[in-house]
Amino acid sequence: MTAKTTQAGRRLRFEIFRYNPEDPESTPHMQTFELDETPYMSIFIALNEIREKQDPSLQFDFACRAAICGSCGMMVNGRPSLGCRTLTSDLPDVIKLHPLPVFKLIGDLSVDTGTWFREMVEKTEGWIHAQEAFDPDAQETRMDDDTAAAIYENDRCIECGCCVASCGAANVNEDFLGPAGLNRVARFAMDPRDERSDADWFEVVSNQDGVFGCIGLMACHDICPKELPLLEVYGYLRRKALSSAMSKRG
Ligand code: FES
Questions:
Q1: How does pLDDT run across 70-92, given as a tens digit for each residue?
Q2: Which pLDDT tens digit goes with each residue over 95-110?
Q3: What pLDDT digit, counting tens, does each position of 184-205 carry?
Q4: Are the CB atoms for 225 and 82 separated by under 8 Å?
């Protein structure tokens, strides 16, 4: 579907969550700003214009403006979205912006996704586990095309946090690995260079904080801005957990 460029002469109303947790005087509230829509206006463009011309204290994050860095995740009319990739022409005249839930609030629309992702990586040991020491002079390890393509699919995650914010389980269980965490586990579990056994993976994901904590709403699959195959990820991890459990029973 081709995105609309703009709707003629629209005056947009932005209702934006404001709160600075560092300021004892600050209280959470919504603040309204108005703006004339321009062709191909994204939430990124609109917020910059508001900050430049109306309120320099407005906090939000952007870096790449191209759906690559993952820093601009926010709730746009209740849906976790990338601000740089969301066009105002696809939205009604009133646009409500909130910070992503689950993550620690830095201020206004800015959240700290970095700490959450670092803790998740440490908890799942999300890196290649191999006995042999890395030799930078050795030839590249070869793998078959299908495996490389499957790993690449999972590796496309930009860690924006939109899936985590949309996840019912992650919103109530702070220890839940979340869709991004399970995706990372799957990425290494299917990598032939990672020497962890099925039993090792069982310890990581076969519990309520792992793949069995998912309550199946699958909002993550619907909203992932990179359209990662998260349904397949859960299927893969559940099959892996099952085969590990079966082999334990002997
Ligand atoms: S600014 Fe980098 S993903 Fe939006």
A1: 999 999 999 999 999 999 999 99
A2: 999 999 999 999 999 9
A3: 999 999 999 999 988 888 888 8
A4: yes
Kindly report, residue by residue over 9-37, the tens digit of the pLDDT. Answer: 899 999 999 999 999 999 999 999 999 99
pLDDT above 70 covers what percent of the chain?
Answer: 96
Question: How many CB atoms are located within 10 Å of the residue 5 CB?
Answer: 12
CA contacts within 13 A on the Cβ side of 140:
3
Q: Is 80 in the pocket of ligand 1 (CB under 6 A)?
A: no
Q: Is the CB of 84 under 6 A from ligand 1?
A: yes
Domain end call among 85, 110, 135: 110
Query: Separation of 193 CA from ligand 1 center, angstroms?
Result: 31
6 domain-assigned: no
Per the model's pLDDT, the better-predicted residue between 30 and 141 turns out to be 30
| Domain around 196 | 125-249
150 & 238 share domain: yes
CB-ligand 1 contact for 86 (6 Å cutoff): no
Q: Are 87 and 157 found together in one domain?
A: no
CB of 169 closer than 8 Å to CB of 234: no
